[in-house]
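## tool: complex_structure
## caller: assistant
## args:
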Amino acid sequence: MKTWLILLIRVVSIVIGVSACFGIDWMSHNQVAVGPGLHFAILPTNEYISRIFALAGLYVTLAVSLNLINGITGQFSVGHAAFYQIGAYLAGFVSLTYYGFMGLTGLPWLLAMMVLGGLGAGVAGFVVGLPSLRLRGDYLAIVTLGFGEIIRIIVQNVDKLGGAYGLNVSPKFQMIWLIWLLAFVCIAVCRNLLRTAHGLPFLAVREDEVAAAAMGVNVTKVKVVAFIVGSTFAGAAGALLAHYEGFINPGTFAMDVSFIILTMVVLGGSGSITGATVAAILLSWLPEFLRGVKNADGSALMLSDSSIIAALLATGIGVALIKRFLDRPPFKWRYLAVTGCFLGALVLKLVIQRLLNLSPALSVAHIEAGQIRMVIFAVTLIVIMLLRPQGIFGHHEFSLAWVKGIWRRLFPRRGVSA
Amino acid sequence: MSFPIMLFAGLDFPSLPQQLVNGLELGAIYALLALGYTMVYGVLKLINFAHGEVYMLGAYIALFTSWALGFGPGKMAAATNNPFALVVMLIASMVGCAVIGVLIERFAYRPMRNQSRIASLITAIGVSMLLQYGGTIFLPNSPPPNISENVNPYRGSIEIPIVPRNAALKAKELALLKVSDDDEAAFNAYLQRTGEGEFGVSAPGIPLRDAARASDRAYNQAKNAAEATGLVITVETGQAIIFGMAVLLMALLSYIVRFTPAGRAMRAVSLDFDSAALMGIDVNKIVVFTFIIGSSLAGAGAMMTATFLGTPLIPFYGLVPGLKAFVAAVLGGIGNIPGAVLGGILMGVAETLVVWAGYSSYRDAIAFVILIGVLLVRPGGLLGSAKVEKV
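## result:
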């Protein structure tokens, strides 16, 4: 009784999710006027927003697949953009040259390219992984970082792949639903892996390699499998990116893309699939949101130097104070104190800005708010790491039991000790 | 059999010694930066990703100091003959970078010290991004400014003859240089007098122009002929100063690390952080000291490259050198001071050799290729030793 109910809920939610994605596709490409109610929903109705949706989906795939390597198996890989790039260029190049091969066109072709990109990146993951997984910790990080750079530089110098200019991928397939389906499959694979006996060795390797080996886990095999699965998903995401954008260049896969993917994993909580997903959506949306900040009359919001300096100073002081409270043993008014610090920082920012405005050079507005989006991104990163180093979700996954636990902690039942 | 011959066929062997000298100078800069990475890693086991940005800020501090000394845009002071400005810029860069390094340590790394290493690493990446993108707002960057060459009194070059040139050809070269200069001066005087441009010369000027071009060509031919007879390495004075200062600073560093109480404490902390604290070493003080030394070395390197090589400054100035220096540190065995120097020199020489061999677009890749090769054979780096994990 209960089992089939859960199954039903799952099927219904998948159907709703996929059809919502189809709806997004349909609306964004036909530019159909939707009912006024839907405008308030987050459903995208133009190219720009649908692009953010697509990129968010790709980043979810990337972050969750890197999470399998980094968070679940504990191997510190920083070169994920390289596999993304291999998938994108392989699929893009093949699509450009051999489109229509064996009579495949349209969706079957795109699916074939996705598989091809995934396989290519998976093979690359195997080739890189097998020798370099002998290294540990920081050294593995450096080797994967270096591998990413090498791939990028080689692609930059191969004229057939468009060199530094980039590659125009000719049949464009803008299928957001497929991107989100890939993300969904990636999440499902990782989650189900952890629920089965095949997944336990991954966790064992993360917790203690030596102990895992003593228990009979084939450590090398586990690491390489994690690497291959992770890079396969990244390659498939790359193939979809190439066909979504219709143009890829080496700059799309620079080192900071790898860092951003890594950031998503750590920010969400290393090892938590939910965390990686949420952080990926958040971080792909945040810079775009900041790009579009406008005044009430629609003109671009201009900031003065004084306002930026004041904001940075106030953030620093506020974070230092909050950290002081968080590091102490818990006391009764702790959360109130933290909230007070947040509000205090806001007031402090205004005070500092007023003081700085005494100097006319600093108070002249001349920076567009969109330009400082990367600064805000960096500050957000530092602040979250300082205040919550285990990431937003820690090791937790989203589940009903977890929500129930939080609810119980926030509102303990009377007479029941926590 | 023919493969190696093909490989070496296009190489310009007579210029190899010159390239090696250039590589040494580049390597000295990488070594200075790599020392900062390796010392911080040795003490904190943290990859200080913001080190490249400290280097970038050092270059900007040198720029601002030169402006404050009167070499700014618009009110350019005349070329000086005394190194006063250089010394002031060097000190300002080193002190400024030390302060920045300590601030980064205090406000970003110290609160993270008890957290997982990956969290500290993300913080380091965050600080690095903050400094880069903050720089695009607050630092002058379009057009990219560079330090005026008038600051630098040492602008000549030193010629080191390895195989002396043919004296007769050399004399001919010098004679032709004089003729060429005279013709050039005559043509320039004509242009000045008539107000014509070089590409719009009227009939009376054409013979003068042709004479100037012909004598210039003759001079270049004679110069090439003379150069082909001998082997001379040209070292710009600036390059020599960079190399000399780098060696001096590294010697000073190794003295501090090996023979002073602070250096001994530093070695103890890098050997075992917790035990060192138990033995009564003020660990925080040593960490701050490490950051001071590492950052001021980066500042010195930044000031010297920005001044003597005159590179335009942008907020991403430290990104590539920082990455390569970091690779150099790992190559030599991270945490190992002689290893960082060795790795830096190797990295610099390898990079110039790649450029010399005609693959200049791969100059950024070679660092990583070498690194991966070395790490796969010696996982602890060249001079480092891989730790064996004990249960």
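## assistant note: The interface with chain A takes residues 47, 107-108, 111-112, 115-119, 121-123, 125-127, 129-130, 133-134, 136-138, 323, 326-327, 330, 334, 361-362, 364-365, 367-369, 371-372, 375-376, 379, 389, 391 of chain B (CB under 8 Å). Chain B has two domains: 16-156+236-377, 165-229. Handing back to user.
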